[in-house]
């Protein structure tokens, strides 16, 4: 579920590695989401595509939104979001930014345990396994620290809403991904992530990533571009310094 944009003046091997990594990240996360969807009877409703253009009446949000900050940190991930649609968007953005920006299998599992819906006990192991496969595909060590400056950073930049009610929201996130190799070269990709959010245990949690039965790949576009706006994407604005607005 990616639209790969080829950066200028980058060696073909680096571009291929970035594309491969982004594709595997997307596939691994979507697989975890599909497994969660088949196990959980509480997966959010997903309307027919013809009815998906606008948020449901339960969600008055439209246009750019300023993300709210969580009230606590768990395993380095911001949690503790309000029981509102804006809270669901903010949680989805924070969780995806953490999940898709690590190459540490143990940390991926810790994030999955912290932010995953308790109804899906396998999310942590799925995420850990996906990171191991990513490292192998990129010919990186299977475990342990990676040589600097190898990093993969995912930054959610725009959103859309689907299937919103008081305890569920399908938050589509348009994210930019930057892969940096051991030589310091970097390449960028763009991805669409369907985050199925569920209010559970006093916080928004991930019920799955993907697993909706819908293909959102046609919504891919460069964040902030006219094409992105024409496809219904709205900006995510950073929380002002000092907390929530």
Q: Name the average pLDDT.
A: 78
Radius of gyration: 17 Å
Largest sheet: 7 strands, mixed
What overall form do the CA principal axes indicate? Answer: globular
Number of helices: 5
* Element pattern in H and E: EHEEEHHHEEEEHE
The residue fraction in helices comes out at 25-40%
Strand content: 15-25%
Assembly status: single chain
Give your account of this protein's structure.
By secondary structure, the chain is of the alpha+beta class. It has one domain. The chain is built from five helices and nine strands, in the order βαβββαααββββαβ. Strands 1, 2, 5, 6, 7, 8 and 9 form a seven-stranded mixed beta sheet that branches. Strands 3-4 form a two-stranded antiparallel sheet. A hairpin with a 2-residue loop joins strand 3 (about 70-75) and strand 4 (about 75-80). Helix 1 (about 10-40) runs antiparallel to helix 4 (about 125-135) and helix 3 runs antiparallel to helix 4 (about 125-135). It is globular, with a radius of gyration of 17 Å. The relative contact order is 0.24.
Notable features of this structure?
30% helix; 5 helices; alpha+beta; 245 residues; 7-stranded mixed β-sheet; globular
Brief account:
The protein is of the alpha+beta class.
Q: What are the SSEs and their pairings?
A:
Blueprint: E1 2-3, H1 12-39, E2 65-66, E3 72-74, E4 77-79, H2 85-99, H3 105-115, H4 123-137, E5 151-162, E6 168-180, E7 186-200, E8 203-209, H5 226-230, E9 234-237
């Amino acid at each position: 579920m990616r639209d790969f944009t080829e950066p200028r003046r980058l060696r073909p091997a680096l571009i291929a590695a970035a594309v491969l990594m982004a594709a595997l990240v997307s596939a691994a996360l979507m697989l975890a989401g599909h497994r969660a969807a088949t196990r959980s009877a509480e997966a959010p409703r997903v309307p027919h595509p013809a009815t998906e253009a606008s948020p449901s009446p339960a969600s008055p949000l439209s246009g750019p939104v300023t993300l709210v900050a969580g009230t606590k940190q768990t395993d380095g991930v911001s949690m503790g979001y309000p029981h509102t649609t804006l809270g669901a968007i903010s949680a989805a953005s924070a969780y995806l930014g953490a999940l898709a920006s690590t190459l540490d299998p143990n940390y991926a599992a810790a994030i999955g345990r912290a932010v995953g819906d308790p109804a899906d006990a396998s999310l942590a192991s799925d995420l850990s396994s996906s990171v191991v496969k990513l490292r192998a595909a990129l010919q990186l060590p299977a475990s342990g620290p990676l040589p600097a400056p190898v990093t993969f950073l995912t930054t959610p930049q725009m959103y859309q809403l689907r299937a919103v009610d008081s305890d569920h929201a399908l938050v589509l996130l348009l994210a930019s991904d930057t892969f940096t190799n051991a030589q310091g070269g970097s390449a960028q990709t763009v991805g669409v992530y369907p985050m199925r959010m569920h209010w559970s245990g006093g916080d928004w949690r991930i019920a799955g990533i993907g697993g909706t039965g819908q293909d959102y790949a046609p919504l891919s576009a460069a964040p902030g571009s006219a094409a992105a706006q024409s496809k219904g994407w709205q900006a995510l604005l950073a929380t002002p310094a000092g907390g929530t607005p």
